[in-house]
């Protein structure tokens, strides 16, 4: 973590930390940020970073070292609600309090254009991130080599509602996005046209000869793990 560039942040120098200047600014505007804290117990990070919680993710702020810039990220469980950067602390405080108050993703991006919603933000807001993820994997050029596997799994119909991801050619299907207790099954193409099916909570993977068998094994493993 870089030390504070005093010439860029006289307000932070005057108050002692980013947390203090954020609280002071919010107080002058009669806005409620909730509890503002830093995960750094000491050192430059305690002065130059801040975090606060909301019902839609943790908000992290840190300052730039080359220019007066406040970098912001709002992280959900395994996805980004929004991220951006601004040099206007007053406006940033308004943005953070608006987010905590429940402003919609579209209204947030429109009112604070320096904040860019994450790819799945609107889908999580509408309650259907899995379908959005399926459509992205089925159409994004970067997944062209795995498209036939993804398309076949989507059309199969037994994995509706599961959240799909791709990693090194393996299709992962999860009952909940990045939660420790989520059910998850992985389907990996092997040489010779066979497939490995692995439930992360069951001890032994299964090798099958066809994609149809792979989907059946994956569906059964999820049922047995329920």
UniProtKB/TrEMBL annotation:
Pfam families: DUF6193. InterPro entries: DUF6193. This is DUF6193 family natural product biosynthesis protein.
């Amino acid at each position: 973590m870089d030390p504070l560039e005093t010439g860029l942040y006289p307000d932070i120098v005057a108050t002692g930390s980013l947390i203090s200047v954020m609280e002071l600014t919010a107080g002058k505007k009669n806005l409620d940020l909730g509890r503002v804290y830093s995960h750094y117990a000491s050192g430059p990070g305690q002065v130059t970073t801040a975090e606060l919680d909301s019902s839609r993710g943790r908000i992290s702020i840190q300052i730039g070292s080359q220019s007066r810039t406040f970098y912001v990220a709002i992280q959900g469980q395994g996805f980004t609600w929004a991220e951006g950067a601004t040099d206007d602390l007053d406006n940033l405080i308004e943005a953070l309090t608006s987010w905590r108050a429940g402003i919609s993703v579209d209204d947030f991006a429109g009112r604070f254009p320096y904040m860019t919603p994450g790819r799945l933000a609107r889908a999580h807001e509408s309650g259907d991130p899995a379908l959005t993820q399926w459509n992205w994997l089925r159409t994004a050029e970067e997944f062209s080599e795995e498209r036939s596997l993804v398309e076949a799994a989507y059309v199969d119909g037994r994995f509706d509602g599961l959240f799909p991801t791709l990693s090194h050619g393996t299709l992962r299907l999860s009952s909940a996005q990045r939660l420790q207790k989520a059910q998850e099954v992985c389907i990996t193409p092997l040489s010779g046209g066979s497939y490995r099916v692995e439930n992360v909570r069951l001890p032994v993977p299964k090798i099958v000869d066809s994609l149809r068998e792979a989907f059946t094994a994956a569906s059964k493993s999820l049922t047995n793990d329920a």
